[in-house]
Design goal:
- The chain is α/β, with parallel strands linked by helices.
- The protein has 13 helices and 18 strands.
- It has 3 domains: about 350 residues, 2-Layer Sandwich (Nucleotidyltransferase, domain 5), CATH 3.30.420; about 60 residues; about 120 residues, 2-Layer Sandwich (Alpha-Beta Plaits), CATH 3.30.70.
- The protein is about 50% helix and about 25% strand.
- Strand 2 and strand 3 form a beta hairpin.
- It starts with a strand and ends with a helix.
Length: about 575
């Protein structure tokens, strides 16, 4: 996997971070700076420094580089919730209007900002716009130095992405990120990992340097060194100066620092208005960048904003073990200087990064051609070749298909005849089955009575008189699978008789008779269903009714088969 490179194009130094993502950790392989001359035109100095970048970095296509300052505009637009294709049309229309007003070609990109707690129905769209000539010059210089970059990104958004990778989450707090550069100040407002607001201010540490230069009558390089050595903006009540020179430098700095503080406060007021959260209270300010090294700056900002102010030093979520020793020392000396470069580098690998990619129009058209148009033409050519070959193949198959069709029609006619014969035979089978069912119903009752008579004749005890034999459809309740009870009809034979002489073993004789019937005739059940003594002709008699069920075995077999079938269906 190629290294992911971020290049922060500062007016005093280019800051470069190169690394690759390993899960949630970003592994740094390079972290270095390239100085930019302070004399002369600023942009020319940056482009000249990019020429020296080749020797340090080598070929590194796909890098992201930062843009900021007066050439960049970040604005916010409210739109109703619409599909992405309609959102693109709306944004293209708005950028065309801005280009007409500016009188110059503009490159743009946009992304949707989610504002937690906002009650507005419309969506907020962050639109970043930069002048095409400015963007194209930087894009070309980086291409010639180390390969074609992926895109440009506003440094303020890169600062937010760097905080996502290496910052500490302060839950339920509005956190204000402030990166103080030489010419620009990057401002970000976030809460719980969601970007709420981003802005850049075309002012920075150069204001302080120029004020020191005017106070001491020296050039910018000497003034910068004096500021670094003696600069101290600790509030008056807390400050203690080691020399008169330090106090003189502090007096020279307090005015420009106040201007920067006012600009930051104005940005916070703008953020409250833009997010629709007028009562928003900042819980913490994190400062980074080279300008954040000014002694007393956190205390000064804390006295102005009345909230904790800390340095943002990107350290968490990073693996520095692969950095060269010299670069490791430079990075550890002040990680905050590399915040924007780090954010640019991690933007391509972090899933929740806020991406706005600014690409010159000619490059965007070329990429569109390479990724879509060329493949569309190639796909069309392949489709034409496929259709020609497919037509030739279909022509060969046409004769075969016609022959098969004739054979199929012949087979279809034969099948129709066979179907008619089958239906005729099936009709006759069904008719005969109905007759068999009717015959079985008629014969079953006679057979049951005859079977019962034969069984009684074989097993009836002596001194017994049979008075009546009745065929009965006995209805009884049975449990159903759903837990309820149903009814079932049984065809049984009731044998009514009298034992003429009753002794103590009379009842037992009837029980033995039933058991003998069941034992010698599997599938038949017999039981005494009624009995009682009567007085007759000078002797006690035992009147009884025995129920004989010739079809008990058949019903049990049918019940077992039904239960087995239900279990199989439940298992499937």
């Amino acid at each position: 996997m190629a290294l992911q490179v971020g290049i922060d194009l500062g007016s005093r130094a280019l800051k470069v971070i190169a690394g690759r993502a390993k899960g949630p950790i970003f592994e740094l392989h390079r972290a270095f700076t390239v100085p930019v001359a302070m004399d002369g035109e600023v942009e020319a100095g940056i482009l000249d420094a990019l020429g020296a970048l080749k020797a340090e970095l080598g070929k590194a296509p796909g890098a992201r580089f930062g843009v900021s300052g007066k050439e960049l505009i970040i604005r916010y637009t409210k739109v109703p919730p619409v599909p992405l294709w309609r959102l693109k049309l709306l944004m293209d229309f708005e950028v065309r209007e801005m280009a007409e007003q500016a009188g110059d070609e503009l490159a743009c990109d946009y992304n949707i900002v989610t504002v937690p707690g906002s009650e507005a129905d419309d969506e907020t769209v962050l639109v970043a716009v930069v002048k095409e000539p400015f963007l194209a010059a930087r894009h070309l210089a980086i291409t010639e130095s180390c390969g074609e970059p992926k895109a440009a990104m506003p440094n303020s958004l890169a600062l937010f992405n760097a905080w996502l990778q290496a910052g500490a989450l302060h839950e339920e707090q509005y956190v204000f990120l402030v990166d103080l550069g030489d010419r620009n100040v990057e401002i970000v407002l976030e809460k719980d990992g969601e970007l709420l607001f981003a802005r850049n201010i075309a002012a920075g540490g150069r204001l302080l340097t120029e004020s020191v230069g005017q106070t001491f009558g020296v050039d910018l390089e000497h003034a910068e060194q004096i500021k670094e050595d003696f600069g101290n903006v600790t509030p008056k009540g807390l400050a203690s100066y080691t020399s008169g020179k330090e106090e003189k430098v502090a007096n020279a700095l307090i005015g420009p620092v106040g201007q920067l503080s006012s600009m930051i406060q104005s940005s916070l007021a703008f953020a409250r208005s833009q997010t629709g959260l007028p009562n928003l209270q900042v819980g913490r300010i994190l400062v980074s960048g080279g300008g954040a090294n000014l002694r007393g700056l956190p205390e000064y900002l804390q006295s102005m904003f009345h909230c904790p102010v800390e340095r943002f030093q990107p350290e968490g979520g990073l693996d520095l073990s692969n950095l060269p020793a010299a670069e490791l020392g430079e990075f550890n000396k002040d990680p905050g200087r590399f915040a924007s470069a780090l954010g640019l580098a991690v933007s391509g690998s972090k899933e929740d990064a806020f991406i706005v990619d600014l690409v010159p129009a000619p490059v965007k058209k070329k990429r569109h051609f390479q990724t879509r148009t060329v493949f569309s033409w190639a796909a069309a050519a392949v489709a034409v070749v496929f259709l020609v070959l497919h037509y030739m193949d279909l022509s060969k198959q046409e004769d075969v298909s016609r022959k098969k069709a004739r054979v199929a029609r012949s087979k279809a006619s034969a099948a129709v005849r066979d179907r008619k014969d089958y239906e005729s035979i099936q009709y006759e089978i069904n008719r005969q089955n109905e007759q068999l069912v009717a015959l079985d119903a008629l014969s079953k009752r006679s057979w049951a009575v005859a079977r019962a008579i034969r069984l009684i004749q074989q097993h009836v005890p002596g001194d017994t008189w049979i008075e009546d034999i009745q065929l009965v459809d006995r209805v009884e309740s049975v449990p159903l699978p759903n837990g309820k009870k149903g009814k079932r009809s049984r065809l049984v034979v009731d044998v009514v008789g009298v034992m003429l002489s009753v002794k103590s073993q009379g009842v037992q004789s009837l029980t033995d008779m039933c058991q003998a019937i069941e034992k010698t005739n599997p599938g038949v059940s017999a039981q005494v269903v009624a009995q009682g003594k009567t007085e007759g002709a000078g002797a006690k008699q035992l009147r009884f009714t025995v129920e004989i069920d010739p079809f008990s075995g058949e019903r049990e077999a049918e019940a077992k088969a039904a239960a087995k079938s239900a279990e199989d269906e439940a298992g499937n």
